[in-house]
Amino acid sequence: MKFGRDVRLTAQHEYRYVFARPKVAQDGLFRILARPSSAAQSRLGMAVSLKVCKQAPGRNRLKRIIRESFRQHQEQLNAAGACDLVVLPRAQATARSNQILFSSLSKLWARSISLTGRPERAKPLEADSHG
Fold it and tell me: How far apart are alpha carbons 15 and 94 in whole angstroms?
């Protein structure tokens, strides 16, 4: 599956929306901020700072792993309802193997699905079915 513009957070206001009141799933390696979205599918944003890794190849490695993990779990994320996600790696992630990073992200995607619950989407559906 291609990682096109339709599955990425690209504008500053999209990031601001997620940072405003996010549901947070985190462990020692990553922090995922999530908010329900009106988009057709879940979208990914990343913020990999110099504090996490001073060398660009290290930051790029983390971004590749995050993108690939998102691709692998995208169907699962979309099935639960679209949400906007921002992934913030921690400095400890740079020293871990790819396998450990993929495992950590896999658990956090599942946790973020359960956290977002999508109450904003559920309420209109309930109102339509009763009225």
Answer: 23
